Amino acid sequence: MARGMNKVMIIGFVERKPEIRRTASGQPVAAFSVSTSRHWTNNLGEDRNATEWFNVVTWGNLAEMAGDQLQKDQRLYVEGHLQTRSWDDTRGQHLVRTEVVACQLIPMETREAIAARNAETASDSSCPCLNRVMVIGNVGGNPEMRYTPDGQAVTCFSLAATRSWTSGQGGRSESTEWFNVVSWGGLAEICNQYLTKGRRIYVEGE
């Protein structure tokens, strides 16, 4: 199978201090959440805001660094890939979780430090966040297009991206992640016209 791309880059704020646990082999694993804020203007000229939450997981030395250095309300750059896993809990309920598996973390200033800086400069500016996903994969099915009540085109389709890596024992491993993709307006009409099941494409969005 052709190699795909599954890359995520976010800049946001740590919303809870990392929780550290260890696997049966003693490897540390850190889990925490990061929020990113997005601002845009819609077709009517109205300002809109949205906050996205990401579950972040990291392993090994990077997990130990996260546990030692990261605090709630700290601004953070995260780079990694998206992973979706599922399991059944003790009550038999099926659970699904999508998370960013981080390979790079860069701590930045805290919300308190940003507020203090703004107070000194009499500024009310907020620090920009980043929410960027880049995927190369194969379309899982023919796109489905619909129109909103105000006539805007919306197209939905699935995308499969295969990631390969070398394990700690030197063996090659692969995993395939599925993404639900939504496009709007003119891009939605292009996707509906040209994309078909199995076609390999590059997608960038948030």
Broad shape: globular
Radius of gyration: 20 Å
Helix content: 10-25%
Distance between the termini: 26 Å
Computed structural class: mainly beta
Strand arrangement, major sheet: 1-3-4-6-5
Number of strands: 11
Mean pLDDT: 89
String of helices and strands: EEEEHEEHEEEEHE
Please state roughly what percent of the residues sit in beta strands, choosing from under 5%, 5-15%, 15-25%, 25-35%, 35-45% or over 45%: over 45%
Q: What is the count of helical runs?
A: 3
Structural account:
With 206 residues, this protein is mostly beta strands. Helices cover 15% and strands 58% of the residues. The chain is built from 3 helices and 11 strands; from the N terminus they run ββββαββαββββαβ. The protein has a 5-stranded mixed β-barrel. A hairpin with a 5-residue loop joins strand 5 (74-88) and strand 6 (94-110). The longest helix has 10 residues, at 60-69. The chain is globular, with a radius of gyration of 20 Å. The chain starts with a strand and ends with a strand.
Q: Keywords, please?
A:
206 residues, mainly beta, 58% strand, five-stranded mixed barrel, globular
Short description:
The chain has helices at residues 60-69, 111-120, 185-194; strands at 5-14, 19-22, 28-41, 47-59, 74-88, 94-110, 130-139, 144-147, 153-166, 172-184, 200-205. Helices cover 15% and strands 58% of the residues.
